[in-house]
Amino acid sequence: MTSAVETPVEKPAPRSGLLTVARAPGWVRYALLAVGLAVALWLPNGLYPAVAVDILCWALFAVSVDLLLGFTGLMSFGHAAFWGTSAYLTGLVAIHAGLPFPAAVLAGALGAALLALPIGYLAVKRTGIYFAMVTLAFAQMVYYVANEWRSVTQGENGLQGVPREFFGADLTDDYYFYYAILPIVLLGLLAAWRIVHSPFGRVLVGIRDNPARARALGYPVHRYKLTAFVLSGFLAGLGGGLFAVGHRFVSLDVLHWTTSGKAVIVVVLGGIGTLWGGVLGAALVVRLEDWLSFSGFEAIGLVTGGIFVLVVLLFRRGIWGTVAHLARRRAAMRRDRSG
Amino acid sequence: GGGGPQSGGDSKLTGDKIVLGVLNDQSGAYSELSGRNSVKAVEMAIADFKAKHGDDAVTKDITVETADHQNKPDVANSKAQEMVDRKGVDAILDVPTSSAALKVADVAKEKKKLYFNIGAATTDLTGKSCNKYTFHYAYDTYMLAHGTGTVTTEQVGKNWYILYPNYAFGQDMEKSFTAAITAAGGQVVGKDGAPFPNTSGDYSSFLLKAPTLNPKPQVLGTMQAGAELVNVVKQYNEFKLRDKGVGLAVGLMFITDIHSLTPAALAGTTYTDAWYWNFDKQNREWADRFQKETGTRPSFAHAANYSAAMQYLEAVQAAGTDDADAVVKELEGKEVNDLFLRNGKIRAEDHRVVHDAYLAQVKPQAEVTEPWDYVKILKTIPAAEAFRTPSPDCKL
Amino acid sequence: MAGQPILSARGLTRDFRGFRAVDRVDLDVAPETVHALVGPNGAGKTTLFNLLTGFLPPSGGRIELAGRDVTGLPPERVARLGVARSFQITSLFPQLGAREHVELALQASSGLGWRFWRSAKLMRRYRDRADELLAMVGLADLAEAPAEALAYGRKRALELAIALALDPKVLLLDEPTAGMGLEDVDRTVDLIATVRTGRTVVMVEHNMSVVGRLADTVTVLQAGKVLVEGPYEQVRADERVITAYLGAADAAH
Amino acid sequence: MLRIENLSAWYGEAQVLREVSLEVAAGEVVTLVGRNGAGKSTLLRSVMGLHPGQRGAVHLDGRDISRLPAYRRARAGLGWVPDDRGAYATLTVTENLTLPPRVGPDPWPLERVYEAFPALYARRDSAATMLSGGEQQMLALARVLRMGARLLLCDEPTEGLSPLLVQQVGDLLREAKKHGVTVLLVEQNLHFATGVADRHYLLAEGRIAEAMENAEVRSRERELLAYLGI
Amino acid sequence: MSGFLQNTFNGLVGGAFYALLALGLAVIFGMLRVVNFAHGAFYMLGAFGAYVLLAEAGVPFWAALVIMPLALGLLGMVLERAVIHRLTRLDPLYNFLLTFGLTLILQDLVKSRYGVQSSPYATPTELSGTVDFGLFDFPTYRVFILGFTVLLCVAVWWVLGRTRIGMVVRAATERPELTRAFGIDVGKWVTPVFGFGIALAGLAGVLAAPMRAVNPLMGADLIIVVFAVVVIGGLGSIFGSVAAGFGIGLIQAWGEAYLSDYPLVSQTVVFVVMAAVLLWRPAGLFGREEAPA
Ligand SMILES: Nc1ncnc2c1ncn2[C@@H]1O[C@H](COP(=O)(O)OP(=O)(O)OP(=O)(O)O)[C@@H](O)[C@H]1O
Ligand SMILES: Nc1ncnc2c1ncn2[C@@H]1O[C@H](COP(=O)(O)OP(=O)(O)OP(=O)(O)O)[C@@H](O)[C@H]1O
Ligand SMILES: [Mg+2]
Ligand SMILES: [Mg+2]
What we know:
The complex is a heteropentamer. By secondary structure, chain C is of the alpha/beta class. Chain C has helices spanning 45-52, 75-80, 98-108, 127-136, 152-165, 182-195, 208-214, 232-237, 239-246, and strands spanning 7-16, 19-29, 34-38, 60-65, 68-69, 83-85, 170-174, 200-204, 217-222, 225-230. Chain C has a 6-stranded mixed β-sheet, sandwiched between helices. Chain E has 11 helices and 2 strands; from the N terminus they run H-H-H-H-E-E-H-H-H-H-H-H-H. In chain E, a hairpin with a 4-residue loop joins strand 1 (130-132) and strand 2 (137-139). Chain E is globular, with a radius of gyration of 19 Å. Chains in contact: A-B, A-C, A-D, A-E, B-E, C-D, D-E.
């Protein structure tokens, strides 16, 4: 039956088109890169270091979601499953095996990628909104399993006392921990960037726009999507593992559907299909939540929900997307005038 | 800078001020029974403390910081750290939800700041997760089970059917209840763990099963809390179990739960309370003041927050410094009688704060004469019996 | 019609909820010929295409490609065995440029598409070939235009370019000239005449003059069954074909 | 009956129609020929009120309808046969036919439709997008006839049809014309066009390049074919 | 035996809520291609509204059963006009996101006004008894829910599948522009349909009020199970959604009754079934082939 799903019967043209791969001129890209790196290096001096650590972890998470949403056209509403599974695995490995934290995080991320395999295998059979619902449902299942498997996960008490072991170095201070994980996060972001701008990434965009056509060209669409899903799961896992070590603790919340939803907000706010927008979105949302919880404002959902509604209604390109769009428009206008 | 607290120089008080941090749920399931009104209660304590000690007070500058942990342990973790690092908090108060409570205990230990837990029930806080800076102030699963289990077995019926939410709290409660019931000469004829969280909100299969057990239970003991408790009670009434001779005992119930279910739905139900606002004159007077401040009657958590803040300030006063180790030394073993703590003692062995507890029964609707006055106290359980003996798991 | 058929079907059948669209069709396509499928609307031509290319699994029967059983293989596998197709209803990547379409097609057989750790710049190696193909179908000056902005006829041409990029052994074209202006039709016919060397072409076409100019063999389908098969002139004159399909008065068209 | 004045249309910044003016008298069949991308479909969509970026006036029976929403134009008697055939996936063939309200004095009853298109009758309970390309084309034509539209806007109704059916469509259009229906026909197939139409407009690069009588087209067929193929 | 029947009955009652919610979801999806994440929030508003009406205006259950769906339906229509509508031309994912945001907002609005404590709501006295079925007796209120839901589902199915209204609405949502060109005022239809779907959620909420805890989060986790239900049934299929709703209710009730030692089973059974369905029939048990999304 699967193949019948994509019989090329009368197919309405895709109605919106999430953005295509953006290209900025070279010097702009280098300048942005330099600014980005500078900000990353400075961050824990300007922000509470624990918040800065959170931002890094969430940036990876958001980018992993955007890899699917923006570049494969698959909106995963269940990415907490990978973020959270890796958090638990990382925690368990760190506690029981006493490995240095990067090794534990790697183990967690690999575990997340492994989990992404069966879930992805089932989920990529559907597209669009169905995909969102299916991933959401599977993530909820993972949540329940973690909840019931108390002997391992400590249930709702959470996994306490995850060590920050790193060859005896003292990383208890979040300030130093931030710099310890920064290279790992940058590596993860670099990987995402490379994937998007690889031949593989091009195929993904093709699949996003017309899967039936891609199949007729000889591309095994399901396998490509699945690969993208697993890669994305790995990156989400990387973030989740660092998050666990960062908090020295894992709770069921890392698997809850609101976590998945938050990841999507972050991406949408930053700009779907912009990759770096996710990083920006992560910084904003994490910072905002930190501020809100001290502000005495009780209805946090009102704010996050409001952001969602506003972005979707007025600001669909997201922050990065809007800036890139304006920049491109101006460049085009200048070209018109001079040409 | 690389974080870490700034030292306040030669003063006995860091920064020459005392900051109390109320970290609790201000938007979720526990926000009404504690929440922002606990901040009010702590402010009342500060005012009373100043009124009492006047210029002798350690410092004029006593403030309250607060944050919403949304019942999420990771949020609780970062908020607790931020409170200490950025807001200069000297003592953290409240912290409902066991997972968050345990997490904050870690923070307290690491940062060497005092922590009075009020909102959480887990006995781990005075068991394997106890530490030098953590005090468990108001209640715990043992207190709840012991009071209700023992007295209800003696006074209502010997055969029990226990329904518990299948997670640490529920399992803990089930074990404690079973122990208390058996010790009081009763027996548990059936018990079931219901899924947690129970998305469908349906308990009918358990409720249908209860009257068919052999021997037939006289008491249905439900360990569900919050919304799940509400579901159980609604459906208990729907299936008319009381008419079928099965009474109801509740493991953990707050006055706010009775308010939302209405006394009519719960008439005759027994449970253990840590404090009741209309118990005596002293409580009543404070409750009136509290109502003026907040517009509502206090729960035991509000009173406990008040009391904990007060005891902390007294201890700082007595020690003459806010140095955590000195304050802990001051508190350990102290015997107290105040608004909340009756025959209270701050146990040095495990930092359990013991005090009298109360077996309460929901009045029939007809006997409810004023809003929020929903229960009568059947029995006062003396402090010595109300809590467990120090656990060997706890090494401070 | 020498040698073993490159593509053959035996008893090929496809049902849609009780409706039989293709009914025990036997078909042999000789290598390096142009084989036309004609027939009234709804005869099952496109469905037959979908079966031959794996887009639909057959309800019964067997398909062989150069002697190898390919029944039930998914479309991407069939494609990689050297069967390319165009779609009757245009099917492109709306936001990709024309050249990118062709590059994507050229890359398909190389396995380059799996390299997620390499730079997309690797794809530049296909640029020259892509431009060549675009020029062949008359799209040279539209290489950058996104597919969604192309007029219908241009889209059809792009379809053809993509199919050619796969350098297939067997090329299946579903109404390649439908919606084209006359000159484009001529160009397309010439193009097919050029690319057929060394290839096998199977095409569905209603334009009988195109069929006449290109086809070596014509199979007429009706109601899912093969009605007549043979050389163009013979089929044209067949009484059954005239009543079922051509109509008595059909003139030069 | 239909008068178009200075109609211009854009896709974003690209102008596709440039000040097109044309007229179709009641009872006439008029074709619009032009090479791919000339803007023929865009013209029909603009008349139907479906093209957002347009300027100019459209008069039906002397009444300016250029401000009416599409559904009011349909009610005024316009019937559109879209170039993509416009079959509904969620409706059966019969439902596709009975969906539009009747808008003219002479709507075809369902029986008559099925008599004229037995192929549709055979597939009457299938989802319309499951039909073959040609069957969908028949459905689209049958639908406007059933509406009883007075002015048909047909966008390449013979595309993808078998020769036999092309003849049938020709017969249908002539038949419709006999009943007083007016037709504006977009066609690539000159041969077919001359068989049914009275007059022709040649659209090139968004402008009306020429207007011709039928006889003129016949005599100039070769030249025109070449022109169209430029 | 009577125990089994009782549990079966309970499963159907639990399933009735899934069915009603899935039905509303399917109606909205079928017509607007919008997956309404906020459906659970509207269910909550239905229950909460009933409580507020009773507590603050003394409006009884029966009146609430009419007023709340109407009021929420109206709210839904306003919402459709004001926001959902703007996104119709875009990828349906945007509406999914929008309604997700809406869910957070609605929940928090109720929370900040009424708190998270559950609010009281009693069974209407007319229905507070039990019905004797010979082998067992059963709360009258549950019998009522079951009968009412089944009737409603049949009625909706009939209207959409068999009447002209249903046909027009299906056409209008599939290809709005084309449908307009056929003389149908599409705008006139979409809004009421959305309102109707929301009204169904509100109705389910009112029905739940006497049985379940009424609080701002009551629909939050439920909606995810309902999503799984519609994936199982086939989102486009009205019949499928309803059937899957009752089916999952039954399976859950049996699981709870006979596998009570394995709480994980009853919690995850719906997701396991969903996985199996995806393997075996990706379009859902009763779903048509996926409209290319
Ligand atoms: N959605 C669109 N966006 C941008 N440009 C478009 C769009 N649709 C059509 N065009 C452009 O508008 C012009 C006219 O298109 P139109 O479809 O009206 O041509 P046509 O004469 O009907 O051609 P054909 O014979 O191929 O159907 C073409 O150049 C086409 O590229
Ligand atoms: N997915 C499907 N489900 C149901 N019926 C289908 C499906 N695809 C095709 N059909 C039916 O099968 C028959 C053959 O269709 P097909 O598209 O193969 O015809 P065709 O010969 O290509 O016609 P045309 O020349 O008009 O394109 C038609 O009657 C059509 O309605
Ligand atoms: Mg065809
Ligand atoms: Mg056209």
